[in-house]
């Protein structure tokens, strides 16, 4: 039973990576902007966060550095697609390619570096509960922050006026513009906020999830997070549940290997990506359902006065 508790704990840890990135992309898409550059932003944030922790020894400074790197790259992307009118798909792919190359170059000096040992995190009393304690209450604080972020985002999007404005920009930017809202500035703010969350996810990978730096260590998680927003039909709570589902599939490969299951390791490594393809294939069988939930202006440029 203890091994199952460890599997649950690892699932929450892995799911946090996907949830943070997917929530950032959700904010982008709610404003009508599709950013395919999550993988590149996460890689640059991973090296920025790791380098910051190596030099300061403080996780939270590393997270701030990762968020800053993600926000800067997202701001550049936002200016290009929102003000200069470049193609969102091509620009996002270019951002991913740039992030992969730049992070590899910047990270050369940090390949052999190690982050300082950190104190173990445990919720007093609750962490000592048999099975439940090791599974749920010995996580890094950012795991619980992510859960709270989901609740905050639900309130923001569906209960607050700024959230309503953000969704209206994603649904009908022309109508929002006619009502006097600065559509392009709102979209840029959403893109930067989304980039910051993708950056936080990247920093979490290199600082907590696998505390080291290796070229390409994000390993497709940015693409899985992108697919997760569609899987969750643009709902924050479904993003969190979907992130834990995919996180569980990721950790299952290690659990099965630990149990001595005679399955090729390459097949187990491919499980998360196979699951992504299967889920998207199942969802695509009902395009009407996706169309109803998807922001109406997703991926469409907006030009004031056109």
From TrEMBL:
State the annotated membrane topology for this chain. Answer: Multi-pass membrane protein
What's the protein here called? ABC transporter permease
Q: Which domain of life is it from?
A: Bacteria
- What keywords appear on the UniProt entry? Cell membrane, Membrane, Transmembrane, Transmembrane helix
Where is it mostly found? membrane
Q: Which CDD domains match?
A: TM_PBP1_transp_TpRbsC_like (cd06580)
Compartments where located: Cell membrane
Please give the coiled-coil regions recorded for this protein: none
Q: Which InterPro entries match?
A: ABC_transp_permease
Give the taxonomic lineage as stored in the record. Answer: Bacteria, Pseudomonadati, Pseudomonadota, Betaproteobacteria, Burkholderiales
Where is the chain membrane-spanning? 6-26, 33-54, 60-85, 92-111, 141-158, 188-207, 213-232, 239-257, 263-283
Q: Name one Pfam family in it.
A: BPD_transp_2
């Amino acid at each position: 039973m203890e091994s199952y508790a460890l599997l649950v704990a690892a699932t929450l840890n892995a799911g946090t990576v996907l949830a943070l990135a997917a929530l950032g992309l959700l904010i982008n898409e709610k404003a009508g902007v599709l950013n395919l550059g999550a993988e590149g932003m996460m890689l640059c944030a991973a090296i920025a966060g790791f380098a910051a922790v190596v030099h300061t020894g403080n996780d939270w400074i590393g997270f701030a550095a990762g968020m800053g790197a993600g926000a800067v790259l997202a701001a550049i992307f936002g200016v290009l697609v929102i003000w200069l009118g470049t193609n969102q798909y091509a620009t996002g792919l270019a951002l991913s390619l740039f992030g992969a190359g730049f992070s590899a170059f910047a990270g050369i000096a940090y390949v052999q570096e190690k982050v300082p040992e950190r104190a173990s995190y445990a919720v007093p009393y609750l962490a000592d509960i048999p099975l439940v304690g090791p599974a749920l209450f010995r996580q890094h604080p950012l795991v619980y922050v992510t859960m709270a972020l989901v609740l905050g985002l639900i309130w923001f999007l569906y209960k607050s006026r700024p959230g309503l404005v953000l969704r209206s920009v994603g649904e009908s930017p022309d109508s929002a513009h006619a009502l006097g809202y600065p559509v392009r500035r709102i979209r840029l703010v959403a893109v930067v906020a989304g980039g910051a969350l993708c950056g936080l996810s990247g920093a979490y990978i290199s600082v907590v999830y696998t505390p080291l730096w290796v070229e390409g260590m994000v390993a497709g998680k940015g693409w899985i997070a992108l697919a997760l927003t569609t899987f969750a039909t643009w709902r924050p709570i479904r993003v969190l549940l979907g992130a834990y589902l995919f996180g569980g599939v990721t950790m299952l490969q290690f659990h099965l290997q630990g149990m001595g299951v005679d399955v090729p390791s390459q097949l187990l490594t491919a499980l998360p990506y196979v699951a992504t393809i299967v889920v998207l294939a199942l969802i695509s069988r009902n395009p009407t359902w996706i169309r109803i939930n998807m922001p109406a202006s997703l991926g469409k440029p907006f030009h004031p006065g056109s």
